Amino acid sequence: MSILHDISAYTGATVVTEHHDMKISRTDPVSVVGKIVEAQIDKSKSILICEPNTNLYLNRVSFLENFVKDNPMLGDFDLECL
């Protein structure tokens, strides 16, 4: 799920999850989609070009930094995935 939160922070979208008591059927699609300027997609990768929302991006970075501090047992592989 982490990659979805990273993308949402970059594009201004909202991740819809039942964990946060959200359901697709009760969500207005216009209120949760983000905005990208350009998408470059091929078989092995996708590149999203956005006008990032600095506040959302910085909040995500802060969340990840705190997550790493609060979980000292994370291994190298886990840290690379973040």
What do you see in this structure?
The chain is mainly α. It has one domain. Helices cover 45% and strands 10% of the residues. It has 4 helices and 2 strands, in the order ααββαα. It has a two-stranded antiparallel sheet. A hairpin with a 4-residue loop joins strand 1 (38-41) and strand 2. Helix 1 (2-11) packs antiparallel against helix 3 (54-70). The mean pLDDT is 79.
* Domain unit count: 1
Tell me the overall shape.
globular
- What is the helix fraction of residues, given as a range? 40-55%
The total strand number stands at: 2
Spatial separation of the terminal alpha carbons? 11 Å
Number of helices: 4
Strand content: 5-15%
What is the average per-residue confidence, as pLDDT, rounded to a whole number? Answer: 79
Based on CA atoms alone, the radius of gyration comes out at 15 Å
Low-confidence runs of at least 5 consecutive residues:
none
- Largest beta sheet: what is the strand line-up? 1-2
Largest sheet: 2 strands, antiparallel
The oligomeric state of the chains shown is: single chain
Structural class category: mainly alpha
